[in-house]
Amino acid sequence: MNNEVQILAATATVQEAARLMRDEEIGSVIIVDPKDNQKPIGIITERDMNNRVVAENKLPNNIQCQEIMSKPVKSVSPNLRLTDAMHQIATQRIKRLIVMENQKMTGIISQSDILAIAPYMIEILQEKANFVEESYQTEFTAGYCQLCRNWSDILIESDDEYICEQCKAARKRSEF
């Protein structure tokens, strides 16, 4: 999550929101209750500005943020698992979640934040899958080893071959 949440009062103008988004290079601003800047009451996104101001040919300096903000904002606990946050973003068709702790905003998590760490998550999943694959062995009670052709009571699948334990140990030694 991003700990630096950009906020504006509900009475701020859309033009102020646009300038803040431009200056901070962000795609949204959280609109807060004028009496409590820790209480989010809405969110303004680039899409809100496009659909509710630009497309309607309105002047952004004449419109207050509260008139075009999306509400209510979706919030989550900082203890929520990342996969659960991803699920909420996907199923609720939103791009951002406000992170709230003890009724205070502590951050915001967006699709972009998740995409930024996705390659690392994929690497971890691949490593776990490889570990599970390596620890999984198909055993047979008897048969001929496909390498040494000797009879073995236990054959182990290794590199698409069924081999005895001695050949498997020899193969591992030769790999180093």
Helix residue percentage: 25-40%
Continuous helix count: 6
Q: Any idea what the CATH architecture of the largest domain is?
A: Roll
Query: What characteristic shape results from the CA principal axes?
Result: rod-shaped
What structural category characterises the helix and strand content? alpha+beta
CATH class category label of the largest domain: Alpha Beta
Give a brief outline of the structure.
It is rod-shaped, with a radius of gyration of 28 Å. The model has no long low-confidence stretch (mean pLDDT 88). It contains six helices and eleven strands.
Give structural notes.
By secondary structure, the chain is an alpha+beta fold. It folds into two domains: 7-117, Roll (CBS-domain), CATH 3.10.580; 136-176, no CATH class. The protein is 40% helix and 27% strand. It contains six helices and eleven strands. The chain has helices at residues 14-24, 46-54, 65-68, 82-91, 111-135, 165-175, and strands spanning 7-9, 28-33, 36-45, 75-76, 96-101, 104-110, 139-140, 143-144, 151-152, 155-158, 161-163. The strands form four sheets. It has a three-stranded mixed sheet. Strand 5 (96-101) and strand 6 (104-110) form a beta hairpin. The radius of gyration is 28 Å and the shape is rod-shaped. The protein starts with 6 loop residues before the first strand and ends with a helix.
List keywords for this structure.
CBS-domain; 3-stranded mixed beta sheet; 176 residues
Mind sketching the topology for me?
Layout: E1 7-9, H1 14-24, E2 28-33, E3 36-45, H2 46-54, H3 65-68, E4 75-76, H4 82-91, E5 96-101, E6 104-110, H5 111-135, E7 139-140, E8 143-144, E9 151-152, E10 155-158, E11 161-163, H6 165-175
Parallel strand pairs: 1-2, 4-5
Antiparallel strand pairs: 2-3, 5-6, 7-10, 8-9, 10-11
